[in-house]
Specification:
With 320 residues, the chain is α/β, with parallel strands linked by helices. 51% of the residues lie in helices and 13% in strands. The chain is globular, with a radius of gyration of 20 Å. The structure holds zinc ion.
């Protein structure tokens, strides 16, 4: 045991991390574990105990190491995070938070796939946001096709796609076309969808119903109870983020409090929508924990129950 430990102490974490590209599954386990050792207590004894546990229950350890998944963030996107990407990633990883990096256009979707490829516990969603629908979406099908040729695919969803009639940054007919084409891709590749729908549910539902069997999440849901119920009746999940921690709208608060826990996915939408009490700062992936804490306190249940159930929900929907 000691000799393995001293060998380990010479291992460079950066080397291990890039080894994840080659044999991701095992390298990931090892990486998580080594991080724990190096960041563990200062005494040799504490390190030794941690090591023993890992050897005995490596699989269990690995399964427990990720406590939460931020089901919708934009950490991969250099337009938002630039040089901060690695720093923010490391903080999330150290807190046991995995993430789904969601594309908003062709460039950002390509970056999401690359980022997922190089980082443990990161998955990608590819898609063109309704804001950017006018710029085209042909690359999305190609990304899915390429990804399926890999030993370990990184793309777990199509998104974020939908309709946004609040900003109307793209003409509405182009938004609808883009949504339909990308829903077609979700069906073809059997992946769920991260939906962005704002002030457009009346047009959204008839389109959605034309693609029976498509599963997904209504990301950053802020609409009416009626539309939440429609979503649930179509077996969709509801994405909750920082908005739930700072909205003053009593109806919204009531809605967030009463959604069935087993249908909620937690998300940050980082760098946007920083949860209370950190309003004013740039949002980051690790802050998804604040959303979880808020859900727990609003419902008078334990944080563990919230993290456990929502983690399971995210794994179920995205098959991870
Ligand atoms: Zn987003």
């Amino acid at each position: 045991m000691l000799s393995v430990m001293s060998a380990l102490s010479n291992v460079n974490l950066k080397t291990l991390h890039s080894a994840g590209d080659v044999r991701r599954g095992s390298a990931r386990k090892f990486f998580t574990f080594s991080r724990k050792i190096f960041r563990g207590g200062p005494s040799g004894r504490t390190r030794g105990e941690g090591f023993e546990i890992q050897i005995k229950y490596s699989q269990i350890w690995y399964d427990c190491s990720m406590r939460l998944i931020d089901s919708h963030c934009h950490l991969h996107d250099t337009e938002f995070f630039g040089d901060l990407r690695e720093e923010v990633y490391e903080r999330a990883a150290a807190a046991g938070v995995g993430m789904i990096c969601v594309g908003t256009d062709e460039r950002s979707s390509t970056q999401a796939v690359q980022f997922a490829k190089g980082h443990a516990d990161v998955w990608a969603a590819v898609g063109v946001h309704p804001h950017d629908a006018r710029l085209g979406w042909s690359e999305i099908g190609r990304l899915l096709q390429e990804d399926r040729k890999q030993d370990k695919p990184n793309i777990v969803a199509v998104g974020e796609i939908g309709l946004d009639y609040f900003y109307d940054n793209s003409p509405r007919d182009i938004q609808r076309q883009s949504l339909e084409s990308q829903l077609q891709l979700a069906m073809e590749y059997h992946v769920p969808v991260s939906f962005h729908v704002r002030d457009a549910f009346d047009d959204f539902w008839p389109i959605f119903r034309n693609f029976p069997g498509v599963r997904g999440v209504l990301h950053s849901f802020t609409d009416s109870k009626e539309n939440a119920e429609k979503g649930l009746s179509h077996n969709l999940y509801i994405g909750m983020n920082g908005i739930s921690t700072f909205t003053k709208d009593a109806k919204q608060q009531e809605l967030y409090r009463t959604l069935p826990l087993e249908k909620i996915l937690l998300e940050t939408d980082a760098p946007f929508l920083t949860p209370a009490p950190l309003r004013g700062r740039m949002n980051e992936v690790g802050y998804v924990e604040l959303v979880a804490k808020h859900v727990a306190s609003e419902r008078h249940i334990s944080l563990d129950e919230v993290t456990h159930t929502t983690l399971q929900n995210t794994r179920t929907l995205f098959n991870i």
